[in-house]
Amino acid sequence: MTLTTLLRLRVAPLKQVSHIVKALPIMSVLLVQIPLLLFSPAQAQSIIFSFGNSEVTASGFEFDILTATDASGVSDGVRVGDTQVYINYNTDGFGSSVATTATVTEGALLQNVAGQDGHEIVSVSDNSSSRLAITTNYKFDGAVDFSTELTESPQQLLHIVLPIQDGTETAGLSFELALMDGQQYQASSLLFTTVQASNTDNTVLPVELVEFTAQADGEAVQLRWATASETNNAGFEVQMHAAAPEADGGAAWQPQGWVDGWGTTAEPQQYAYRVDGVAPGTHRFRLKQVDFDGTFAYSPEVEVTIGLDAAYRLTAPYPNPFNPEARFSLMVRRAQHVEVAVYDALGRRVRVLHDGPLAAGTARSFVVEGHGLKSGVYFIRAVGETFVATQRATLVK
């Protein structure tokens, strides 16, 4: 889900403002305390603030504050300085006075430059019950190359996470014009000039997942999850990450099924899904929550282990017939020394894939390569201290 709110900061040419600074020395002293952005005074420039990269995660509603310029190529560039960002939000969705619950971290533009720790988040506070105030600090030392230059492509200034209280509400993010307009930014070590701002609104909060669990039941896994509220929720795709996915020749995360959502509701909902025929081993599960417009978000992962009842489990090679290679896995219930080898139809050993210890309860993957072998039938033989097992594979060239 992408946020498109923009905040434009229009900079007047330096020649138009220098006489104002000289005429009002007291005001210029006051403005020094809140410089916004350092730039070269060669020409007028625009500095663009925007919201972006928003998504709903287990932590809440996450988004970035992005900064860009339309004046690339200017001598000395446009650079990050001291910045005060004021963000309005919907209290019905996030609650009031969120400064203590919000998580604000530095973006790429506030990372150290050339090993110098010149940028930091100074404060995160409640400017009002529905407005977050964030101050970042650029420690100006008279060198314009101390700060990271802006580009025409938006760059990350801040990353913010707001815990969701009601997922049926809109996020309602916007910049506060009354406070952003008239801020000052540093044009040189002596001169300052005003900026202007404009702004729009943004997006909707989707599903609020409050519980997601997995429990082993023989060779099956029972999944259960619950939502506190839902907005435009088409449903959930259940996905599994197998203990040894490469043994099945598939991708790491595999869809297992679909469960319809409740669309839009402020009432708590309960869901369940059973995955049968799960191989022994430790597996991970997650939910892909999909909105009616196709946007989606992933849930946190849950992990479950299926025990091995027999002494071993040797899977059939895949693909079979194969060329150029086939994959399979072996799991043992008790740790032991195991030899895994490949034999041709005459009983001659042509490959040794493993000869050593094998840990208990963990699927070990193996590959049979057809390089150097003729077309025909081959046998994969695993010999342990407590078992002997064989699988057949056919190489076709």
What does this structure look like?
The strands form seven sheets. Strands 14, 15, 16, 17, 18, 19 and 20 form a seven-stranded antiparallel beta sheet that branches. Strands 1-3-4-10-7 form a five-stranded antiparallel beta sheet, with no helix packed on it. Strands 8-9-6-11 form a four-stranded antiparallel beta sheet. By secondary structure, the chain is mainly beta. The longest helix has 7 residues, at 25-31. It folds into three domains: 6-194, Immunoglobulin-like, CATH 2.60.40; 208-306, Immunoglobulin-like; 312-395, Immunoglobulin-like (Sandwich), CATH 2.60.40.2550. It has helices at 18-23, 25-31, 91-94, 177-180; strands at 6-10, 37-39, 46-57, 60-69, 78-80, 83-88, 103-106, 119-128, 131-138, 155-162, 174-175, 184-186, 192-194, 208-217, 220-241, 253-265, 269-275, 281-291, 296-298, 302-306, 312-314, 325-332, 336-344, 349-358, 364-369, 376-383, 388-395. It is built from four helices and 27 strands.
